[in-house]
């Protein structure tokens, strides 16, 4: 049985001879061939080269053609900011200066879709019989946020009909993107919608469910399968996610796999995740990666389960760590050896990482704990919200972003008692955990802290 057959079997919720293995190789593919993310994500030749190298190294059962949630937004008029080690980020929001009716028609001959489809065709010929290729598309709520910016959170209360219309528009764009991938041979469409982790269950049901179901129904009608992939702490919306029309729900490290498995089986869905991106795959070693994989595999079983990192792999993820996961997935003997091998590495207590003495400052200090605001959409929009609120508050505000891609960021996360990402801390206290507040609420929280400092 090929890896593709195993993964498709897992997607259908069936028992498999071993867990399916899906490394989400995005810009990390550029690292494998010594190219920047900017170069890699703008070249069909480099996409093919990087993914063929990933296939050679990691023994995957599935691979995404590209992991970039800005492809559709770019075509629709959002300007992008490019970087060397992360996907581009959206820096302008067209609906801030025009109406929904003024947005251009989604044209797949524009932007980077032609080169992505070229890469898809070539990869299908090279490895498509053995590896399940994923077409990853930007989910409708995240796409809506790209188009409108953080104003969407206020408009969800003030003008819900406007947001429902925007979500319907975004769903149509998603269907067009998914259709292109399916026409070029991909059998699974991953609808990646991380910003849904930032809203309430009521808002998820009101705005997200109708839109994503429209997308999932269209994908099924075209003979493909779908996955709803939400990075971030989606706990509050997990049940709603599992009730959508998708075939599979995938999550990151903030979701317990036993809980996800229970909800998915209840709703006849397969599930995937949730290896830790930074503390294990990026900053850990081979044994850390093996133990992580084994722990998740044992919690999840082999029925309808796909082992995967919790999101797009960091650019500098060591090859040895991912190769170690591939070995564990494919080799029972290696698994038994790893189970009986104890790490001699001491747990990091971050003794050298010290938060500031907040009482010594007249200014309010806002610490934002993120994965990386240049590559994580919820982190980006949380940082944007903090920056705008800081300008509106009557007190001077210092803003610090602590990216957990670096050890210092992990240390600050530990010292501030942060459990979920992204999180806003105000003067050392957790204020907003994995939810982006509206501007009035955030400004009020900052100003309240400034008043308390006076006493």
Major sheet: arrangement of strands: 1-10-9-8-7-6-5-2
Number of helices: 19
Q: In which range does the helix fraction lie?
A: 40-55%
Report on the biggest sheet.
Answer: 8 strands, parallel
- What would the average pLDDT be, to the nearest integer? 95
Work out the number of β strands: 14
Give the overall shape. Answer: globular
Which CATH architecture of the largest domain? Alpha-Beta Barrel
Radius of gyration: 21 Å
In whole angstroms, the N-to-C terminal distance is 69 Å
- Low confidence ranges: none
Your description of this structure?
This protein has 19 helices and 14 strands. The chain has 455 residues and is of the alpha/beta class. It is 46% helix and 14% strand. α11 (238-242) links the parallel β7 and β8 (248-251). It has two domains: 3-339, TIM Barrel (Alpha-Beta Barrel), CATH 3.20.20.210; 358-453, Glutaredoxin (3-Layer(aba) Sandwich), CATH 3.40.30.10. The termini are far apart. α15 packs across α16. The longest helix has 24 residues, at 160-183. Strands 1-10-9-8-7-6-5-2 form an eight-stranded parallel sheet, with helices on both faces. It has a four-stranded mixed sheet with strand order 12-11-13-14.
């Amino acid at each position: 049985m090929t890896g593709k057959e195993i993964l498709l079997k897992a997607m259908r919720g069936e028992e498999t001879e071993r867990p399916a293995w899906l490394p989400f190789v995005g810009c990390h593919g550029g690292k494998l061939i010594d190219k920047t993310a900017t170069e890699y994500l703008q070249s069909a030749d480099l996409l093919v080269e990087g993914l063929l190298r990933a296939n050679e190294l990691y023994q995957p059962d599935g691979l995404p053609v590209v992991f970039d949630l800005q492809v559709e937004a770019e075509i629709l008029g959002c300007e992008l900011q490019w970087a060397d080690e992360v996907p581009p980020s959206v820096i302008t929001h067209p609906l801030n200066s025009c109406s929904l009716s003024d947005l251009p028609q989604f044209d797949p001959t524009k932007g980077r879709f032609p080169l992505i489809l070229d890469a898809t065709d070539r990869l299908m010929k090279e490895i498509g019989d053995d590896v399940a290729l994923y077409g990853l598309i930007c989910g409708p709520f995240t796409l809506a946020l790209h188009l409108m910016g953080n104003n969407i959170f206020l408009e969800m209360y003030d003008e819900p009909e406007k947001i429902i219309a925007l979500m319907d528009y975004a769903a149509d764009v998603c269907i067009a993107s998914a259709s292109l991938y399916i026409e070029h041979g991909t059998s699974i469409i991953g609808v990646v919608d991380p910003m849904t982790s930032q809203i309430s269950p009521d808002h998820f049901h009101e705005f997200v469910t109708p839109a994503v179901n429209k997308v999932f129904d269209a994908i099924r009608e075209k003979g493909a399968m779908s996955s709803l992939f939400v990075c971030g702490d989606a706990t509050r919306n997990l049940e709603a996610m599992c009730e959508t029309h998708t075939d599979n729900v995938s999550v990151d490290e903030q979701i317990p796999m036993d809980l996800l498995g229970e909800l998915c089986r209840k709703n006849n869905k397969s599930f995937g995740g949730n290896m830790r991106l930074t503390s294990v795959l990026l900053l850990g070693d081979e044994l850390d990666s093996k133990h992580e994989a084994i722990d998740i595999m044992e919690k999840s079983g082999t029925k309808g389960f796909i082992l995967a990192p919790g999101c797009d792999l960091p650019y500098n993820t060591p090859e040895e760590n991912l190769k170690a996961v591939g070995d564990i997935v494919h080799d029972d003997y290696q698994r038994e050896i790893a189970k009986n091998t104890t790490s001699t590495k001491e747990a990091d207590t971050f003794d050298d990482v010290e938060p500031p003495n907040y009482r010594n400052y007249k200014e309010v200090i806002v610490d934002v704990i993120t994965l990386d605001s240049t590559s994580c959409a919820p982190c980006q929009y949380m940082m944007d919200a903090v920056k705008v609120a800081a300008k509106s508050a009557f007190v001077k505000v210092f803003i610090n972003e602590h990216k957990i891609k670096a050890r210092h960021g992990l240390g600050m996360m530990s010292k501030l008692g942060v459990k979920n990402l992204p999180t806003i801390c105000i003067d050392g206290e957790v204020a907003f955990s994995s939810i982006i507040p509206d501007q009035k609420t955030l400004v009020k929280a900052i100003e309240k802290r400034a008043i308390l400092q006076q006493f």
